[in-house]
From TrEMBL:
Keywords: Signal
Composition bias, Low complexity: 35-56
Positions of the UniProt region annotated as Disordered: 31-57
Species this chain originates from: Arthrobacter horti
Signal sequence region: 1-21
Highest taxon in the source lineage: Bacteria
PANTHER family the record matches: BLL4220 PROTEIN
InterPro entries per record: Lipoprotein_repeat
The name this protein goes by in its record: Lipoprotein
Length: 196
């Protein structure tokens, strides 16, 4: 019996899986894509009703063109960041309810994104052409120049991202991926708890 076709199929499937997940070794290539669990939006997803506020004076904005990214990134223009409740936790989402994440290798007060290449494709930067409108988010917002040269939004000094496997508002499929991707609370606190 010839086992070559089965071995070829298994090899191709493994290679395709790695390409789709954007995973890496974390060796500075911007990996950490990881694979995503599948889930639907939690039924406890509810936008916050807190009044809008503005970012702190200076907020890190000024200069540079902001622009929209890919995936669930909003089109170029104004961005709204608000809070929503998922699994009993108040987290930061965009105006459509899409969850935003931080990448711990970026570190506090990052001046550039550590998420590059396949990582950036899996985890598109949250971009805006101006300081975001804040609704219930009390953390200071700012910006850095993202890996694509556009202005990437920061919350509490950390660049924020969307996850391409979150396909509907309120999904948190990126929470805890590879132990480096997490959601934020309204005050910028990193939330590492499971949200399932």
């Amino acid at each position: 019996m010839n086992k070559r076709p089965a071995l070829l199929v298994a090899s191709l499937a493994a290679a395709a899986g790695l390409a789709l997940t954007g995973c890496g070794s974390g060796s500075g290539s911007g990996g950490y894509g990881g694979s995503a669990p599948t889930s639907s939006a939690p039924s406890s997803m509810a936008p916050s009703s807190m009044a809008p506020s503005s970012s702190s004076a200076g907020g890190g904005y000024g200069g540079g063109d902001y622009g929209g990214g890919s995936g669930s990134t909003p089109a170029a223009g104004a961005l709204t960041l608000k809070t929503a409740t998922v699994a009993g936790k108040s987290i930061v989402v965009d105006g459509k309810g899409d969850t935003v994440y931080i990448f711990t290798p970026d570190g506090m007060n990052a001046t550039k994104s550590a998420c590059l290449g396949a990582c950036a494709a899996m985890w598109p930067a949250v971009e805006s052409d101006s300081a975001p409108t804040l609704q219930g988010v009390t953390a200071k917002t700012g910006s850095i120049t993202g890996s694509d040269g556009k202005m990437q939004v920061t919350v509490a000094g950390m660049p924020i991202y969307f996850f391409s496997h979150d396909t509907a508002p309120g999904q948190v499929n990126g929470q805890g991926v590879n132990g480096v991707w997490y959601v934020l609370g309204a005050d910028g606190t990193v939330i590492k708890d499971s949200l399932k």
